[in-house]
Each structure stands twice: as structure tokens, then as C-alpha cells.
Amino acid sequence: MNISLSWDLFVVVFFVVIIAYSLIIGRNNTLKVILGTYVAALAADAIGNLFGKYFTGSELLLKLLKFAALGTEDAAIVFVKVIAFVALVILFSVKGSFFVDTANDRSGPIRLIISFLYAALSAGLIISIILVFVSGISFIGGDGTSANSAALWEIYNQSKFVRSFVANSYFWFSAPAIAFLVHSLYSQKES
Q1: Residue 191 above 60 pLDDT?
Q2: Collapsed DSSP state (helix, strand, coil) of residue 16
Q3: Does residue 91 register a pLDDT over 60?
Q4: Whose CB among 11, 26, 141, 181 lies 3.0–4.6 Å from 161's, allowing a Cys bridge?
Q5: What pTM does this model have?
Q6: Which of 21-25, 106-110, 160-164 has the lowest mean pLDDT?
Q7: How far apart are alpha carbons 118 and 33 in whole angstroms?
Q8: Among 30-39, 64-73, 98-107, where is mean pLDDT lowest?
Q9: In this model, does residue 189 exceed pLDDT 60?
Q10: CA gap 133, 144 in Å, rounded
Q11: Centroid of chain to Cα 105
Q12: Is the pLDDT at 146 greater than 50, yes or no?
């Protein structure tokens, strides 16, 4: 069996790992991850933008570029955003001071389907946010740079899965929130 490493393989493996992790931690904790992911995306974007604003051209940024072999200052800002995002998602998931408790008012197979749906939506959301950061686009202001967009488009042209995530990014950003709201509206949780 000859397996070649590609961006498609990376995206599929990353997607499956997030789904498996989500199924292991359960529906309520997956919802906690989703909610933490939204907050982490905005916070990481702001952290990266602040880093770029205050450290562009500085000795610290030059050392980071050399250490991480990133090449450009724009790539360093993307690197900071992605690292901050991953760290914040983990921290919100493990230590976040919020609690999610959904009703278990449905049959076992329906609960499994809902859990799998949330797991897939969580995976899609996380991957889409990372791809947005790689593209250089900011959620909270400022435009992307051509250097980062060129890096994404190189991957985009090599991977049908990256193309799919980029083309459907609005779906991946909105679907977890809408699914959670619809599920909340139809839950029979007693107060």
C-alpha cells in the first residue's frame, strides 16, 4: 500500500481526530468546545493583530521568524494566531468557566446522531477557522495580505478538501451555532 502525504490526507485525518475526540468527550463537552472555539477565534485574531501591530520590525519578531523558519512577518502573525487559537480552544475546553447541559430526552440512536452531528460541526468549525487565519483574513478588522493568501491558494489548488472548506466556510461558521440553537429550542429540559 502506497500512501502519499498530501493536504487532503492531513485535512481528513485532522477532521476524523476531532470527531473521535468529540465523541469521546460527549455531546455536552463538544458543545463547550464549540462555544470556546468561537471565543478563541476572536481572541486569537485580536492577539495576532496586536502582535503584528506592536512587534512588526522588532528584534523579537525577527527571532521568531528565524526560530520557526516562517519567512515573512505576515507568516509570523498567522503562526501566532494559529498557536493562540489552538491554545485557547484547549484552555476553554478544559478549564472554561462555563457549563453546558443538554437534555437527554431522546432515544439512544437519536442522541448518537446528534452527538455525531455536533462532532462533525466542531471539526469543520476548527478547520475553517485555521484556514481563515492562514489566508490572512481577520475576523475583527484589517485585510489579509497577499503573502498569506498566496500560501493558502497554493494549498487550495492542491487539495479538494481545503477547497471545500474554503468554499463552504460560511456554512462551517454558522451551522454549529444554528444547530445548538435549534437543539435548545426543541429540548425538553426541566428547570
Answers
A1: no
A2: helix
A3: yes
A4: 11
A5: 0.84
A6: 106-110
A7: 10
A8: 64-73
A9: no
A10: 9
A11: 30
A12: no
Rounded Cα distance, 94 and 10, in Å: 25
Q: What is the pLDDT of residue 18?
A: 95
Q: Give Cα separations from 172 to 68, 76, 118, 132 (angstroms).
A: 30, 26, 11, 11
State the Cα–Cα distance between residues 35 and 118, nearest whole angstrom: 11
User: What distance in Å separates the CA atoms of residue 48 and residue 132, rounded to the nearest whole number?
Assistant: 13
**CA-based nearest residue to 83, from 95, 73, 91, 94:** 91
Q: What Rg value do the Cα atoms of the chain yield, rounded?
A: 18
The three state secondary structure string of the chain is: CCCCCCHHHHHHHHHHHHHHHHHHHCHHHHHHHHHHHHHHHHHHHHHHHHHHHHHCCCHHHHHHHHHHCCCCHHHHHHHHHHHHHHHHHHHHHHHCCCCCCCCCCCCHHHHHHHHHHHHHHHHHHHHHHHHHHHHCCCCCCCCCCHHHHHHHHHHHHHCHHHHHHHHCHHHHHHHHHHHHHHHHHHCCCCC
Copy the grid coordinates of residue 31. Answer: 458543545
Integer CA distances (angstroms), 4 to 1, 7, 10, 40, 123, in order? 10, 10, 11, 33, 23
Residue for grid cell 466542531: 122
Q: Which residues contact 2 (CB under 8 A, 6 or more apart)?
A: none
Q: pLDDT digits over 115-136, tens only?
A: 999 999 999 999 999 988 888 7
Neighbours of 164 (CB within 10 A): 14
